[in-house]
Design a protein that fits this description.
The chain is built from 8 helices and 10 strands. The chain is an alpha+beta fold.
């Protein structure tokens, strides 16, 4: 191999290594479930700032001064609960009041996802990922919507499942609020029933017991009334039967004589006054 050929071979090798190093240091792979958001610090390949178009899953080359952020677009489930969990890691229960100012607490489950085409604009507006929005702006929107709906209802209307209307109202309001930003609210519902104050719970139990007592008393009164009507009917029947019998006997004296004969044991009384029983002498 000549000297010139060797030098050329070395230069090609160095160039290849340099190119591979450049590509390796200036490329990003966007993982499945995410889109890429490209930020340009310099006007290389476009205007500075966040690029308007999201990058699809796959390998992408970065020019000098460019960065690519991975922005998740799969649905995210989040729970605002009193108990600490893997989401907020602290008490995130919602506190609100009813129409009369009575304080109520409850837990909410929510499902959210960023539309892939909207990821660049969401990042431009909030400079935050979805988890941050769930812990802050979206949580505030949920809390406001729940409070707004609950304030129109007395606590009595929330009992027996009536509180579900609050979740439906909040879902509608929050969905409309974030749809314009390209964020879709897929679900918003209670995680169990709201926690009412003890005075309300006590009142509910007392009312239930009172209702049961009233129902029991009404049932007993109905039974007593029915028994009363039965006895009256029996007494009236007996009286009517006696009246009919008396009338029949008075109209037919021989019937009385026949009944007396039927009851006689055949022994005459030792002392009598008047006529001998059952013997009529003409």
């Amino acid at each position: 191999m000549s000297t010139n050929s060797a030098v050329r071979f070395i230069l090609i090798g160095v160039s290849a290594v340099a190119l591979l190093g450049f590509v390796g240091c200036h490329s990003t792979t966007v993982e499945p479930g995410s889109v890429g958001v490209k930020f340009r610090a310099f006007p290389t390949g476009g205007a500075p700032g966040v690029a308007a178009d999201a990058l699809a899953t796959g390998w992408h080359l970065r020019m000098p001064g460019e960065r690519i952020f991975q922005y998740p677009v799969i649905e995210r489930q989040y729970s605002y609960t009193r108990e600490t969990n893997g989401d907020g890691g602290e008490n995130e229960e919602l506190v609100f009041v009813d129409k009369n100012g009575l304080e109520i607490k409850g837990d909410i489950n929510i499902g959210v996802r960023v539309l892939p085409t909207a990821a660049p604009s969401v990042y431009t507006k909030y400079r935050a990922n979805l988890d941050y929005l769930l812990e802050n702006q979206i949580r505030n929107a949920v809390r406001t919507a729940v409070a707004r709906s609950a304030a129109t209802m007395p606590v009595e209307s929330m009992l027996g499942g009536g509180y579900q209307k609050i979740a439906r109202d909040a879902f509608s309001e929050v969905s409309n609020r974030w749809r314009g930003d390209g964020i879709e609210i897929t679900r918003l519902e209670w995680s169990g029933a709201p926690r009412f104050p003890e005075v309300v719970t006590t009142s509910i139990l007392a009312r239930a017991r009172a209702d049961q007592d009233v129902q029991k008393a009404n049932a007993e009164a109905a039974v007593a009334e029915a028994e009363k009507r039965r006895k009256v009917a029996e007494a009236e029947g007996d009286a009517q039967a006696l009246t009919i019998r008396g009338q029949a006997l008075r109209a037919n004296p021989q019937i009385m004589q026949q009944q007396a004969i039927a009851k006689w044991d055949g022994v005459l009384p030792r002392v009598t006054s008047g006529a001998v029983p059952f013997i009529k002498i003409d």
